[in-house]
């Protein structure tokens, strides 16, 4: 028996085992994947909780200071293009805790979100491990590629949200005032809510190529469909950008540009999948 036939036979046997698993068996497998993912998140959360000074003073509260790296680059850009308004000289607000357990509760929730971000590659591995038995052998070999690319896009989204969206949001929202008599005393939870929304929304948006890849594999999205509705997609992207950024056109454009680039990359990915599918179908017809 040739190696190809032997491989096909083993693949069929594996698929048969998966199909023979009952619904309760699948639930039991899923339960353990969820337990391991939760443990990974908690380990990351405990690590983040332990490094409180670095997590808060060096990272999360950095966009609230005028010496934040993004503000420095904006100031340098303002000097080059002769636009002094880009230089942030002050951020007129004070962060306060307005409840007894406010700081402790915030510490726990922020640590949990940090744990989720840290454990994201492992969570992807657990997701892949759960769905891989239902895939063909050649598709299961893509586990490393899937995890690396998805993790890379996720962390790029996190960095984009932290270094671009967060400081733009903070600068605009605290700089906007209805009267000089109003002083900004921002609750701790409100400040971190802005950061969380910016970072997680960006991370999710940057996963667009991965989502399009799987939708194209399932035949739910085609490159022709994406090209036809490109204008509609741009409008949706602008709406999402308006939701996660301050209501000024410059910030929305800055956020929209990388997402639009990812959309074009997604069209290329979808096109490659459909071309490969057409070649496979044509070769099967030729063989028959």
Please characterize this protein's 3D structure.
- The chain is mostly helical and 288 residues long.
- The chain folds into 2 domains: 9-200, no CATH class; 207-288, no CATH class.
- It is built from 13 helices and 2 strands, in the order ααααβααααβααααα.
- It has helices at 3-20, 23-50, 52-60, 69-80, 102-118, 120-131, 137-140, 143-175, 188-205, 208-217, 223-228, 230-244, 249-287, and strands spanning 94-96, 185-187.
- It has a two-stranded parallel ribbon.
- It starts with a helix and ends with a helix.
- 21% of the residues are buried.
- Residues 1-9 have low confidence and may be disordered.
Describe this protein with a few key phrases.
single chain, 288 residues, mainly alpha, two-stranded parallel sheet, globular, disordered N terminus
Across the major sheet, the strand order is 1-2
Q: Which descriptor suits the 3D outline?
A: globular
The count of domains is 2
Main pleated-sheet profile: 2 strands, parallel
Name the structural class: mainly alpha
Task: Assign a percent range to the helix content.
Answer: over 70%
Q: What's the number of extended β-strand segments? A: 2
**H/I helix tally:** 13
Provide the residue-averaged pLDDT.
83
Compressed to H and E, one letter per element, the order equals HHHHEHHHHEHHHHH
- Tell me the radius of gyration: 24 Å
Q: Beta-strand percentage? A: under 5%
Oligomer: single chain
Which secondary structure elements does this structure contain, and how are they paired or packed?
Blueprint: H1 3-20, H2 23-50, H3 52-60, H4 69-80, E1 94-96, H5 102-118, H6 120-131, H7 137-140, H8 143-175, E2 185-187, H9 188-205, H10 208-217, H11 223-228, H12 230-244, H13 249-287
Parallel strand pairs: 1-2
């Amino acid at each position: 028996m040739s190696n190809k036939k032997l491989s096909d036979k083993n693949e069929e046997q594996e698929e048969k085992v998966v199909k023979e698993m009952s619904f309760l068996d699948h639930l039991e497998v899923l339960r353990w994947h969820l337990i391991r993912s939760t443990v990974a998140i908690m380990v990351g959360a405990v690590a983040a909780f332990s490094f409180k000074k670095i997590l808060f003073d060096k990272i999360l509260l950095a966009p609230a200071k005028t010496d934040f790296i993004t503000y420095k680059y904006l100031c340098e850009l303002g000097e080059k293009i002769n636009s002094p308004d880009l230089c942030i000289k002050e951020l007129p607000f004070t962060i306060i805790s307005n409840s007894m357990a406010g700081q402790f509760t915030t510490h726990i929730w922020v640590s949990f979100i940090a744990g989720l971000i840290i454990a994201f590659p492992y969570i992807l591995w657990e997701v892949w491990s759960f769905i891989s038995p239902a895939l063909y052998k050649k598709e299961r070999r893509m586990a490393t590629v899937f995890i690396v690319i998805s993790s890379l896009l996720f962390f790029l989204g996190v960095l984009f949200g932290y270094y671009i969206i967060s400081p733009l949001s903070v600068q605009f929202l605290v700089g906007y005032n209805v009267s000089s008599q109003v002083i900004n005393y921002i609750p701790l939870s409100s400040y971190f809510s802005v950061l969380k929304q910016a970072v997680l929304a960006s991370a999710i948006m940057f996963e667009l190529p991965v989502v399009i890849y799987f939708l194209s594999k399932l035949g739910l999205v085609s490159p022709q469909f994406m090209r036809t509705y490109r204008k509609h997609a741009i409008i949706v992207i602008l709406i999402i950008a308006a939701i996660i950024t301050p209501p000024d056109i410059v910030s929305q454009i800055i956020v929209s540009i990388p997402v639009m680039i990812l959309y074009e990359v997604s069209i290329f990915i979808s096109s490659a999948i459909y071309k490969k599918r057409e070649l496979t179908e044509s070769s099967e017809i030729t063989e028959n």
